[in-house]
Amino acid sequence: MPKLRVAIAGAGEEGTSIYKMIRAVPEVEVVGLYSPEKILEELTLNNRMDVVILAREAGRLKQRISGLIKPGTSIIDAGAVDLIVSLLKEKEKLLEFKKLQSELTIILNSVHEAIEVADTDGIIRYVNPAFTRVTGIPEHERIGRNIFEVSPNGALAQVLKTGKNIFGHRTRVGGSNSEVISNAAPIYVDGNIIGGVVVFQHLTDVIKLMDELRQSASLIENLSEKLGQVTTSKYTFSDILGNGQELKKCIQVAERAARSNSTVLLLGESGTGKELFAHAIHHASPRREKPFIKVNCAAIPESLLESEFFGYTKGAFTGAIKSKIGKFELANGGTIFLDEIGDMSLNLQGKLLRVLQEMEFERVGGNQTIKVDVRVIAATNRNLRELIRQGRFREDLYYRLNVVEITLPPVRYHKEDLPLLCNSLIVKLNRKLGKKVKGLSRDAEEALFSYDWPGNVRELENVIERVMVTVDDEVITKKNLIQHVSQFKNTSERDLDLIPIDQMEQILIKKALLKFGNTVEGKRKAAQALNISLATLYNKIKKNRSDN
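^ that's the sequence the OP posted. Answer follows.
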């Protein structure tokens, strides 16, 4: 069928609106949109239009246009145009409404909650697919029924009676055994109620959702607790100050150990910097971005140490109102530093050995096996071999811990580092205390050298801070030190404690080996420093071992 050829006379706003509306009509071919003057010229040259539509501005040309059109061509004037425009607009609105209705139906049909709609008389007009899933009632058995008959006690019936919203209404759906939780509301149009809608879920779905919510809340709480406890390393190898030969060897061994996942055992007197080394090893390891967790085995009561290590489940003991994550679980992927390992009970040593061997454990009061990936660094100032002989430390745990052993030298064996350590402490304490101390006088350095520092670096830190709290001078003198540390008063005149000669030999030999090293070359230098032959040194070392 040929298309209807249409020309529009009037290129203004009205003519353009007509063009936009009729161009989409399949049966119409718009041959042109002309100004009033141009339409006369076009009809004179090309008289092949089927319809000429006159916009309002071209209405005055109707008689002239009528004389130019061929027989059979129709003219539609402005009045008829208004009717056409109105019809086309209504058509557009209808199409838009149908589109919106279709989209709304798709949305309602995809909702997981059941939906039911009724008019003011209670006649059920709509249910979505979820309604059938929740209740088991087919759509055709529900639509057209009266809500006051099929479910008179439901939320939808109450809304239609009262006109008020209802929330959390628990009931059974009429015609079904399904127990549901409902929310319902009236539907208003222009201020008048025209019906109501109810949305509900099966009670078991709600309970399941609440359980999931509780689990999520518990997970968030555990993660929040974990975030609050997780720490990372604070020190690096550059923070370890000293140029002593033995200290440098310890740093070299620690740097090599950091590149592996091997367990490290740090030995040495209290205050020699074992924790500082542990931080530095973690920071230099591939695990540096993961947690660094410290546990002081001597500071936690034995009854609590197991739960501190492995965590506990809710109700595991009186007061356990919620589950708690243990230190090993917190350290997963990173490093755990077990300080004062020599103070751990034998019972807990056995459980720790299992973790080191299998990398798995159970929380206190729980039966779920938790697997972890943790690098262990242990430290102690105790003689673990002596504790093994006394039956107070497990030998198998000792060998599991002692993969890489690093014995840190006490300050009295590298006193040449005292000025460096003191100056570093003075810089830090100046910032902390707001002081302007520049350093130590010569007599103050001599006083520091004359003291053996049994508390090592920790004691040195306490002494320097104690002095700087009260000093007002720019230089710390021996007089300042003596005011706070009585040991400095007559350090040059102190008598040595009288001890057996063989014990003195052991002390001197140990000190020489610490200074020069345990290698063949180190022993040769130690023998020279002690003014004995190398053979004599070996005999005395052998004798000391047999005595021990």
